[in-house]
Amino acid sequence: MNTRLLLFLALAATSMRAASPTDQLVNDGIAAYKSGDYDTAILKYNEAIKQNPKDATAYNDRGLAYNGKKDFEHAIADFSTALRLKPDWSFYYNRGTAYSQKGDNNSGISDFTKALKLNPKDPLTRADCLLGRAHCYFDKEKAQPAMADLNAAIKLNDREPDAYVLRGILHKVNHDYARSLADYETAIGLNPLNPRSYDVEAYLLSACPMPKYRDAKKAIEYASKACDLTKWRGAKEVETLAAAYAEAGQFDNAIKWQMHAASLDANDIDKNRLNLYQQKQPFRDSNRGDQTTINPSNMQNKVVIKLGQKVTARFQLKDGQPVNPGLVQADGQKPEKTPDCLWLDFRQDKRGRVLFLWHSFPRTMRTKCVARLKEYDTYFDTDIIPVPIKTVSPEIWKEPVEELVLFDLKLE
Asked: Is there a smaller number of Cβ atoms within 10 Å at the N or the C end of the chain?
């Protein structure tokens, strides 16, 4: 969340005040707030509020101090009181920020929207409101409105790195890796001392499922920079460095830094990565909930087919179940002419990528399957509907699936 505007509001509010007996107390509170002494700031604002219980700015500024202490309940209460006394857009913005940091994104969206309605003209502060609301939408996994707010915010203020970082993450989620990297680079150019910008780019350069976007050397450089900027205390930044070394094939370093990340914060890391590095495998992030942990290259009983191919695989039967696909032919001959065979035809038509299955087993066939998208080197889990006897079963994918791996065939 953008904290620049929160401090600006605390200062600007007093600079616009008419002279009153509480001014010195509020000014002292602002000085304490700026130095990070939130407890002293709260004491000063308490005295100011005692002298003038209807001073909306004092409640707002005390709310900022509580927010600095991450005491969101008291912060929200103070912002709410300030709003009852004076419905100012900045108070809605501050309360929206507190709601967002507390995790109440619905209330945050409501407050940022009200702030936008009350502040329609100033481009920089309007951009901040849009960015705050985008964070809430992002946390709710509402990518479309988050992207709309980010684009609008950047149009109003193209100098805010956080907007580019968040938009870059959304591009990554949408598998638009070129735009993601471009936004990260813009963020770094705007603020070369922001560790998050280096971290998110290093992560993508290390873990992208499309090989053409990975760059181990640059990933190590950027991840190291993020660690330097966080004084090597951030578990996520150190974990990204481990992923960068794994992409470079330096698995001893990957193991060392992954273990160090765990020592910094065991709850803030991916506990599965250490095992990958110990097996000399890099980490990949396909941005999918159905990403598989299965490595098809290690499978024995599998049938592989790529788009545009026809394959016939003949199996042995062991205890009534198909195993050891032996001869795999590309002649496309239907398996009813040969026992214990599976016939596959994977092609593109108006419905998308379609896999046609037919088999000559004596019972309904069920199989597991993983798929690989075009230009990817990672797989995801996908379903194959059970194929009855003497029935051609079509399976359809709308995505650009390029390869399918069928395994663990069972007869029901």
From this structure: C
